[in-house]
Amino acid sequence: MSNGNYLFTSESVSMGHPDKVADQISDAVLDHCLKADPFSRVACETLVTTDLVIVAGEITTKADLSRKILDSLVRETVREIGYVDPTIGFAADTCQIHTYLHQQSHDIAVGVDVGGAGDQGMMFGFACDETKTYMPLPIYLAHRLVENQAKMRRSGELKWLRPDAKSQVTVEYHADGTPARIHTVVLSTQHDESVVVQRNGKKLFSEEARKVLIEKLILPTLRAERPDLVEGNDIIYHINPTGIFLEGGPHGDTGLTGRKIIVDTYGGRGRHGGGAFSGKDPTKVDRSAAYMARYIAKNIVAAGLASQCEVQLAYAIGYPDPLSIWVGTNGTLREGLTEDQLIELIREHFALTPKGIIDTLDLRRPIYRQTAVHGHFGRELPDFTWERTDKAAKLAKAVGLRQRAAV
């Protein structure tokens, strides 16, 4: 843009999106295992398609994983998401369920049993001061749109909504990286026949329903977070831009666990190590170290040490300590600080072995199914311990003491 402003876009998907259905089933299996056995080792993958759920993976646990239990677990999860109508091609009571589970590899277990990481890889965490939850604005708004779509569907306020939906938010930023306005909102939501009209021989989503979504769902969601970026701005809307969205969910598109890793994290802001979260117990650093990296980054920003912060942690399978720690603040670091000093603070104030991460964040609990929708980050729920800012005051104090000592 000629004035130096630029656009950035992030997307989210609803709990009824096929990939998210798969994520929720995998995390429901994980929670079931952890509830009975907090030291369960779980790597659970799910595939969903027309009237079919396939659950596979490596699980070592004392929990009951009999066919009856798994069948009930899957159907309950699908039912709670909202797929109860067999006529749309996927429903809790009619889908077939196949399970293929075996124990974790001994070659992996031998390294994890002594406190090592459950896999190799690098994990990233990110935080910035664009929102009250220290999340980037585009992904935060995109999450809230599909979250509120689900609330309106489940409450019956908009009876014609169905579970599958996707959102996308484009924010215009000033050249200095601060949000200038909300530029474009895309919302595609599955619906029933009651809001379909015929126009020129084609079935289309009605204009009346489009207006309802803008006035009752989209604008209240945007205003709740940043009214200053809404009022007086000519926001562009694309509502069901293909014209109609009757066929959706697992019947419309096959879903797989772990396919929405950017939706699950920061919407493309910051980097991603490539590891998915859902279906993995906390010995898998793909998940637990990503949560810790978010915890670190959020506390650094909350402490006022930078207005944005990205943290990378890297691990080797079977080895407890991180191979490397990297911090980037994109030029927003408090005057007098260096990123090397931030790394020193991280080593001093955060336990970074797999055991240290699990203990700090209390991760051996059945808390994971709720993470599988509306983002793993940016929701300050009681179980989301990685969203706490309880280290911020200690970090700020430590920096103050160092700077005074240096004078």
Walkthrough of the structure:
It is a single chain. The chain has 407 residues and is an alpha+beta fold. The chain is flat. Helix 1 crosses helix 2. The chain is built from eleven helices and 13 strands. Strands 1-6-7-10 form a four-stranded mixed sheet. Strands 4-3-2-11 form a four-stranded mixed sheet.
Number of helices: 11
Main sheet? Answer: 4 strands, mixed
Average pLDDT over all residues: 94
The topology string of helices and strands comes to: EHEEHEHEHEEEEHEHEHHEEHHH
Percent range for β-strand residues:
15-25%
Structural class: alpha+beta
Give the number of DSSP strands. 13
Radius of gyration using CA atoms only: 22 Å
Please write out the topology:
Elements: E1 6-13, H1 18-36, E2 41-49, E3 52-60, H2 67-81, E4 96-102, H3 106-112, E5 121-128, H4 137-155, E6 161-173, E7 179-191, E8 196-199, E9 202-205, H5 207-225, E10 236-239, H6 249-252, E11 255-256, H7 261-264, H8 285-302, E12 308-315, E13 324-328, H9 339-349, H10 354-361, H11 392-406
Parallel strand pairs: 3-4, 7-10
Antiparallel strand pairs: 1-6, 2-3, 2-11, 5-12, 6-7, 8-9, 12-13
Helix pairs in contact: 1-2, 4-5, 8-10, 8-11
Features:
23% strand, four-stranded mixed sheet, 34% helix, 407 residues, alpha+beta, flat, 13 strands
Write a concise synopsis of the structure shown.
It contains eleven helices and 13 strands. The protein is of the alpha+beta class and 407 residues long.
